[in-house]
Amino acid sequence: MLEDLNKKAKSAGLHVADAKKADLFSIRKVKNGKLVAKNVTAEEALKVIKKSK
Predict the structure, then answer these.
(1) Single pTM value for the model
(2) In terms of Cα–Cα distance, which of 33, 27, 34, 32 is closest to 6?
(3) Nearest to 44 by CA among 19, 14, 24
(4) Collapsing DSSP states into helix, strand and coil, what is residue 28?
(5) Tens digits of per-residue pLDDT, 27-44?
(6) Which domain of life does the UniProt lineage start with (predicted)?
(7) Which of 1, 3, 4, 9 is least enclosed, having the fewest CB within 10 Å?
(8) Which residue did the predictor score with more confidence, 31 or 53?
(9) Is 26 helix (H, G, I), strand (E, B) or coil?
């Protein structure tokens, strides 16, 4: 799941990583490392990626 999210996020200039809690993700900008979203589920992560494109 993480690899799929990262493939989609790459085109938007984002990077997805596992959060400390299970089955949650955090999203950062590749360019400057600023946090975009923290502790989001996979569905929420896809929404954030679509918004930033």
Answers:
(1) 0.91
(2) 27
(3) 24
(4) strand
(5) 999 999 999 999 999 999
(6) Bacteria
(7) 3
(8) 31
(9) strand
Which DSSP symbol is given to 34?
-
Q: Which amino acid is residue 45, in one-letter code? A: A
Q: Which letter does DSSP use for residue 24 in this model?
A: -
CB count in 10 Å sphere of residue 2: 12
Q: List the domain boundaries for the chain.
A: 2-52
Tokens for 1, please give them.
Answer: 């799941």
| Sheet containing strand 35-40, strands side by side | 14-18, 25-29, 35-40
Local structure of 23: helix, strand or coil: coil
Tokens of 47: 């929404």
Token pair 């089955």 is at which residue?
23
